[in-house]
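Researcher: Let's do a round of design. I'm pasting the structure tokens now; please hold your answer until I've finished.
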């Protein structure tokens, strides 16, 4: 098709330029176009199509080797790895005039079909577009939750958080978001996919193979204050594609500093974080925080009472102590992500030590949490129990890389015979989890297990603890009072796992909505290519709950007490959420510590206390 268009346009241009010259003068040019240029164009398209197919085969091989949940996806969803890659290859062959953006869409569709929030692909692209507001839905209605006032036109000064969006770009808002969800973000978890589509409504990027709009868009709002409906025309803030020829991705060195602690090597940074966090974070502007963003310092959870102490702004955790309407002293801490290390662990320890004599219960807010580091999460858990916590096990993909690492680890770790040597060789922590001789022994058993599984010819291991077998209470301070953990459908990976561990050990009450269901560690890959593929990620292990082997992948964690945000919450400061949470706190405190009172006088002002830094 493209060749015919090219030839016809070329002839038209030539005819107009030659005017009334005889048609026979055009014959040599026609002959040149048809017999010389057309084959070149056909050859270029065939070469591009073949390069796409070869690139797809390379990615397929990586998935065949390391994508651990493949069997589960077949059993649970009927998703077949070989068939889905074959479908993608067929789509490439069906492209009449392939361009790079076509390949990006084929790959993105393939990765989305896996129904795995760890499986994503990104591309080298500068094209993007955004609108200066975010929306969030409840009960079939959609409300503005954030406005970029710097970018909103002055004529729109009547816009406010809590206004309801009625229509978007000529469509009923519910239909618009439904179409967006089903066409680009359908991973078979409707509520989580809904949140992703809501965020994508006003932010699109070629980096993620999204359709990037430009021009004007009509928005119909019903204002919270006046209840009147008005129509507005906004213009997409559009940035065009500037990459004409995509560069090869740079190869990063894996060399390590000579004196780097053993447990700080990249191999041990086991991540459980959805790559969608980076996707949405790319579009953020720091003109005001959206309390519904992934990883936001403050969430939508309203104050639970009258605040009598609050953490400093430079503290990595937003936290406070409040007195509820029922005169209970409650500690609250926001865990926005599970990204952190020794500094954050030290701050958390001080905070728990501060909360312990001054509160009757602890509320941990981890809603809208994208996940993070497995061992940092384990480090936080050491302060939240006075008894060992049983941990999930993982099925892990094996290649020669894991086997080589096991040999190296065993050679170094078997020489350690004391606590002092453990600290000297391994460093103070395993990405936040405290190092000890016992941890060294657990590591030796883990790596010996890896070698044994490989010797038995396995490419995916039997379920095994990820180095740490159980969370042991911290030797300095532990919180031994009731804990309530707040979750929702935008909790991914580590934020699936954290409430899972506490729930399975009956250490906390879980309140909110079912988590996303991303159950395993994630690894990123990349390879040199000229197709604009920047990188991709997939799940290279599969988590099983310790009680019965149930998976978290696609299933998530179901709360002990369910609560989903209502339309009234968005219009009335989430009061319904606060009332429901208070109804959970009351019986827990009555049953657990009926006569317990914090160790301070009734009028003591805790605001004068500061955590030592």
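Researcher: That's everything. Go ahead.
Model: Designed sequence:
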């Amino acid at each position: 098709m493209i060749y015919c268009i090219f030839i016809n346009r070329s002839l038209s241009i030539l005819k107009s330029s030659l005017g009334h010259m005889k048609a026979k003068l055009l014959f040599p040019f026609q002959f040149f176009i048809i017999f010389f240029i057309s084959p070149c164009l056909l050859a270029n398209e065939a070469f591009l199509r073949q390069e796409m197919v070869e690139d797809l085969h390379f990615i397929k091989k990586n998935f065949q080797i390391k994508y651990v949940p493949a069997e589960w996806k077949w059993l649970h969803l009927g998703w077949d790895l070989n068939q889905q890659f074959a479908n993608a290859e067929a789509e490439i062959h069906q492209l009449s005039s392939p361009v790079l953006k076509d390949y990006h869409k084929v790959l993105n569709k393939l990765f989305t079909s896996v129904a795995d929030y760890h499986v994503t692909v990104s591309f080298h692209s500068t094209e993007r577009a955004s609108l200066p507001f975010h929306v969030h839905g409840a009960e079939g209605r959609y409300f503005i939750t954030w406005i970029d006032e710097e970018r909103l036109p002055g004529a729109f000064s009547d816009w406010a958080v809590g206004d309801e969006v009625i229509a978007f770009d000529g469509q009923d808002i519910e239909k618009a978001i439904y179409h967006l969800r089903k066409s680009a973000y359908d991973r078979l978890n409707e509520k989580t996919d809904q949140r992703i589509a809501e965020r994508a409504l006003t932010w699109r990027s070629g980096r993620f193979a999204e359709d990037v709009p430009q021009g004007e868009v009509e928005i119909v709002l019903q204002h919270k204050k006046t209840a009147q409906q008005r129509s507005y025309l906004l213009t997409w803030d559009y940035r065009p594609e500037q990459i004409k020829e995509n560069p090869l991705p740079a190869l990063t060195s894996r060399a390590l500093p000579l004196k780097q602690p053993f447990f700080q090597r990249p191999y041990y940074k086991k991540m459980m974080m959805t790559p969608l966090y980076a996707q949405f974070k790319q579009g953020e502007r720091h003109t005001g925080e959206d309390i519904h963003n992934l990883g936001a310092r403050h969430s939508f959870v309203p104050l639970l009472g009258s605040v009598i102490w609050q953490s400093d702004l430079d503290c990595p955790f937003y936290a406070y102590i409040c007195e509820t309407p029922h005169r209970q002293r409650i500690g609250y801490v926001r865990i926005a992500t599970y990204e952190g290390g020794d500094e954050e662990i030290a701050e958390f320890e001080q905070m728990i030590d501060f909360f312990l004599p001054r509160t009757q219960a602890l509320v941990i807010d981890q809603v809208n949490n994208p996940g993070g580091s497995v061992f940092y999460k384990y480090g936080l858990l050491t302060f939240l129990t006075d008894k060992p916590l049983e941990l999930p096990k993982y099925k892990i993909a094996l290649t020669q890389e894991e086997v080589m690492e096991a040999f190296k680890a065993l050679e170094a770790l078997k020489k350690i015979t004391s606590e002092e040597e453990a600290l000297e060789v391994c460093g103070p922590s395993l990405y936040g989890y405290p190092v000890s001789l016992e941890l060294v022994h657990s590591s030796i058993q883990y790596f010996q297990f890896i070698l044994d599984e490989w010797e038995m010819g396995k490419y995916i291991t039997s379920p095994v603890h990820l180095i740490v077998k159980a969370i042991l209470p911290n030797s300095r301070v532990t919180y031994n009072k009731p804990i309530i953990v707040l979750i929702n459908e935008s909790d991914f990976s580590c934020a699936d796992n954290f409430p899972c561990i506490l729930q399975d050990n009956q250490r906390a009450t879980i309140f909110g909505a079912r988590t996303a269901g991303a159950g395993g560690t994630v690894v990123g890959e990349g390879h040199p290519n000229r197709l604009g593929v920047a990188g991709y990620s997939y799940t290279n292990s599969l988590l099983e709950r310790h009680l019965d082997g149930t998976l978290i992948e696609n299933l998530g964690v179901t709360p002990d007490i369910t609560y989903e945000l209502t339309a009234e919450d968005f219009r009335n400061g989430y009061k319904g959420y606060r009332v429901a949470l208070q109804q959970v706190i009351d019986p827990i405190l009555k049953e657990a510590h009926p006569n317990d009172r914090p160790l301070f006088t009734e009028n003591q002002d805790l605001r004068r206390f500061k955590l030592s830094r």
